Amino acid sequence: MANKEGWKRKTFRDLIRDYKLTGRARRLAILPGSPFIGHRLDDLRLRQRYGANVVGIERWRKFRRVMVSVAGNTELRLNDVLLIDMSASEVDLREFCTSQRLEPMVLRGEYFSEQARDVGMAEVSLIPDSELIGKTLYDVGFRSRYGLSVVGIRRNGEAMDGLLTDEPLQLGDILLVIGDWRMIRQLQSQKHVMLVCLFVLCATIGLFISNTATTVLMAPIAIAAAKQMGVSPYPFAMIVAIAASAAFMTPVSSPVNTLVLGPGGYRFGDFVKVGVPFTVLVMIVNVIMVPWLYGF
pTM for the complete prediction? Predict the structure, then answer.
């Protein structure tokens, strides 16, 4: 998967508009006698049966209500307050609440915007060769796998309507995911970590062989790593290209360095003292800027 299209950051309001989420949010408390109590979300199959997608849970802990991240194996409890995306407009909310012993609660703001500090949104897009292409969200167990719920799919620039769990995913689809900010940041951090490792490895290899040879050697590995992670290969390939050219640390890491070694009166240690901090600086700047410019 890749980060949201383009480089322009969208607001909560932009995402609500683009994916037609207005009027779909519900905040429901679990009452005594509810059949939800003691059951896991996957077992209840609420999205398949009612079009009800639980995207967050408010739960009492130490005399205050906190937000609990949602997974397929999350067990529901009495007095839990469910944040639900109701994608099936034909479902009678009053009948649903009565039959399942749920109580509607006040929901301020549009589509959980008041809970935005705890509940985050992000767009991800499918890339060529992604293992998700041709499969449904239900087939891949998206929520259990990533800890995030898909509440919208845009295909050919248009938001899709209806139940999304049984829709085979296609190349170019953009998924709107919602869930705990920690899970979104964790997904991102697993990628700015992989880029750091790639940069360090390329820069180290570049100390002993030419930057061209380093790029030829590492580019297939970087692209394969991106494919395995299900993210865009462009940032990975760009990091390899830049890191292979970051030959600042020794006089033999580049012909240009060797060329000025004698006439400039430099010593080996001079390159190390200046080159190591400069390489670290280049790495930090590129690990931050490359994903922002090219997107995951």
Answer: 0.62
Q: What is the pLDDT of residue 5?
A: 41
Q: Which fold has domain 23-109?
A: Alpha-Beta Plaits (3.30.70)
CATH topology of domain 2-8+118-180: Alpha-Beta Plaits (3.30.70)
CB < 8 Å & 24+ apart, contacts of 137-145: 137/164, 137/165, 137/167, 137/169, 138/48, 138/165, 138/166, 141/72, 143/41, 143/70, 143/71, 143/72, 144/42, 144/71, 144/72, 144/73
- Give the dihedral sign, CA 68/73/79/80: positive
Instruction: Pinpoint the residues of the chain covered by CATH 3.30.70.1450.
Output: 2-8+118-180, 23-109
Q: From the DSSP assignment, how many helices (H) and strands (E) are in the chain?
A: 11, 10
- For 67, residues 6+ apart whose C-beta sits below 8 A from its C-beta are 56, 57, 58, 115, 118, 119, 180
Q: Tell which residue, 146, 117, 107, 147, has the closest CA to residue 24.
A: 107
Name residues whose C-beta falls within 8 Å of residue 189's C-beta, 6 or more positions apart in sequence: none
Over residues 171-220, the pLDDT tens digits come to 778 888 888 777 777 666 667 778 888 898 888 888 888 788 888 888 88
3-state secondary structure 79-139: CCEEEEEECCCCCCHHHHHHHHCEEECCCCCCCCHHHCCCEEEEEEECCCCCCCCCCCHHH
Q: What is the mean pLDDT of the chain?
A: 82
